[in-house]
TrEMBL record:
Coiled coil: none annotated. Pfam families: PhzC-PhzF. Keywords: Isomerase. InterPro entries: Phenazine_PhzF-like. The lineage of its organism: Bacteria, Bacillati, Bacillota, Clostridia, Peptostreptococcales. It comes from the Bacteria. This is PhzF family phenazine biosynthesis protein. Belongs to the PhzF family. The keyword Zinc does not apply.
Length: 291
């Protein structure tokens, strides 16, 4: 099997979010789940995607963290199709089908970015009880006081999914965002209790007009992640539900700054509430896995 190390949601090597990409030959089957998990653990990135072409314009992709399989991973998908583009397996201007555990999703190979469909957006629950709010912000290492305010709109933490469930956590400004220092053991326990992947903290009060965010998923052995497509897809729906953005909007998210790996993730919210996430990727290295 051929593998690649790709920096996704970036135009520069050592930026964005790194992922492992493994191409499965058309005549070969996926390896066992144990082998794929061990491969992901050996590559040591937050996610590794295993991609197999199954028809002229159709692919099947499975995603593994070092700990377990997950339904979908945005940055590994952008990375996968960047690799397929570099290998001439997909072409600019075409739309492809990607079969995942989160559903069958379209991938658009644009001239300037690759866009992927998110799963159906779903609001799962809101965290608005005072004791739950205090607990959540406390686990993240900051006070809950005056955090969820934007243009006189009171924002609450909400669990949203566009393929993977995450808690959207509003904070008032970039200083608060940068000061987050979670209790990772407590966050893992909370994530397990709420049945979510992790917490996606964000502020809409950034000086540059972008939405700045940080993502934490220690339950899946990811203390912090530099770019998360599924979480920013969920955040796009959160912002829409809370009347911060409108349909037919294009949004830019900045993530990974505190990790020294700044990422740019673009989202599109369509009139039918379908969400797309897009960006670029660069290949750092490639080689063979001798299994």
């Amino acid at each position: 099997m051929k593998f690649y190390i790709v920096d996704a949601f970036s135009n520069q090597i050592f930026g964005g979010n790194p992922a492992g990409i493994v191409l499965i030959g058309e005549k070969n089957d996926f390896p066992s789940e144990e082998i794929m998990r061990k491969t992901a653990a050996e590559l040591r990135y937050s996610e590794t995607a295993f991609v197999k072409k199954i028809a002229e314009k159709e692919f099947r992709t499975r995603y593994f963290t070092p700990a377990a399989e997950v339904d979908l991973c945005g940055h590994a998908t952008i990375g996968s199709f960047s690799v397929l583009l570099s290998e001439g397996i997909v072409k600019p201007g075409e739309i492809y089908i990607n079969h995942t555990l989160a559903g069958t999703l379209n991938i658009e190979i644009g001239e300037e970015a690759i866009f992927m469909d998110m799963g159906e957006p779903k609001e799962l629950f809101k965290i608005d009880a005072k004791e739950d709010i205090v607990e959540l912000y406390g686990i993240m290492g900051i006070s809950d006081e005056n955090q969820g305010l934007f243009n006189d709109i009171e924002l609450f933490a909400q669990a949203i999914s566009t393929g993977l469930p995450d808690i959207m956590l509003p904070v008032r400004d970039e200083n608060q965002l940068n000061s987050i220092s979670p209790d990772f053991k407590a966050l893992s326990e909370l994530s397990e209790r709420y049945k979510v992947v992790g917490v996606h903290a964000f502020t809409v009060n950034a000086a540059d007009g972008n939405i700045h965010c940080r993502n934490f998923a220690p339950l899946y052995d990811i203390d912090e992640e530099a770019a998360t497509g599924t979480s920013n897809g969920a955040l796009t729906y959160y912002l829409y539900l809370n009347n911060i953005i409108d349909k037919d909007s294009v949004n830019q998210f900045i993530q990974g700054e505190t990790m020294g790996r700044p990422s740019k993730i673009i989202s599109k919210l369509m009139s039918d509430e379908k969400i797309q996430i897009g960006g670029n990727a660069v290949i750092l290295a490639c080689g063979n896995i001798n299994i």
